[in-house]
Design goal:
- This protein is mostly beta strands.
- Helices cover about 0% and strands about 35% of the residues.
- The protein is built from no helices and 10 strands.
- The strands form 3 sheets. Strands 1-2-3-4 form a 4-stranded antiparallel sheet, with no helix packed on it. A 4-stranded antiparallel sheet has the order 5-6-7-8, with no helix packed on it.
- A hairpin with a 3-residue loop joins β6 and β7.
- The radius of gyration is 15 Å and the shape is globular.
């Protein structure tokens, strides 16, 4: 362990999945931000990872208890498991996923695939891993 950071301004509480309050943690692809799932408070907390220890920046309210966080390959969008699509730059929810009957859609398994001429040419994964090549 290099550093330990705690979310300020929130309390521990009831969680309904994964047996822990913070199952999901991820780095944006550019590795500048750390996003932390907070199941007890239905929040996604964002930290500045360019500073050590990381510094809490903001929190985003979600429609349910998050358990996971993924990012688009280009780093423009965050996908918490609760089904919202968050614009990373603004930290605003721009879409909430729903099915054809307007039912809430959630998933921890979001995978981005780019196609060209009917062939897969690039793929992401469901993990919030930094993508900076050193």
């Amino acid at each position: 362990m290099i550093y330990r950071v705690e979310v300020k301004g929130y309390q521990k509480g009831f969680i309904k999945r994964h047996g822990c309050p913070s199952h999901g943690i991820g780095l944006t692809p550019d590795e500048k931000e750390l996003w932390l799932s907070d199941g007890a408070n239905q929040m996604m907390h964002v930290f500045d990872a360019t500073k050590m220890p990381p510094v809490q920046k903001t929190s985003i309210a979600l429609r349910d208890q998050p358990g996971w966080i993924s990012f688009s390959m280009d780093g423009k969008y965050a996908f918490p498991s609760t089904g919202e699509v968050i614009e990373v730059a603004s930290k605003k929810i721009i879409k909430s996923l729903a099915d054809e009957k307007a039912g809430i859609v959630q998933s921890e398994k979001v995978v981005e695939i780019h196609f060209k001429n009917g062939r897969a040419i690039a793929k992401g994964d469901q993990f919030g891993l930094g993508r900076v090549l050193k």
